[in-house]
Write a structure and sequence with these properties.
The protein is of the alpha+beta class. The chain has two helices and four strands; from the N terminus they run βαβαββ. It has one domain: TusA-like domain (Translation Initiation Factor IF3, 2-Layer Sandwich). Helix 1 links the parallel strand 1 and strand 2.
Length: 77
């Protein structure tokens, strides 16, 4: 099981805020840390994986939990 370093609650935020807040939070974490992001913006399904790909972070998982999405992002080493 992946150990989660921090959680970002981006519920209720619309594009591009979930990704912008995730970027800011990841900057404060050490390399290899895992950030769990909770989002309910439909655009996040596309935006979060794209952000990870562009920034070099690893998207460990992406799943639906009821009405929101849960992403696990590992900060680039």
């Amino acid at each position: 099981m992946t150990e989660i370093t921090d959680t970002l609650d981006a519920l209720g935020l619309l594009c591009p805020l979930p990704v912008l807040k995730a970027r800011k939070r990841l900057k404060s974490l050490p390399a290899g840390a895992v950030l769990r992001v909770l989002a309910d913006d439909p655009a996040a399904i596309v935006d979060v994986p794209h952000f990870c790909s562009e920034a070099g972070h690893k998207l460990l998982s992406q799943e639906l939990d009821g009405a929101h999405q849960v992403y696990l992002i590992q900060k680039a080493v």
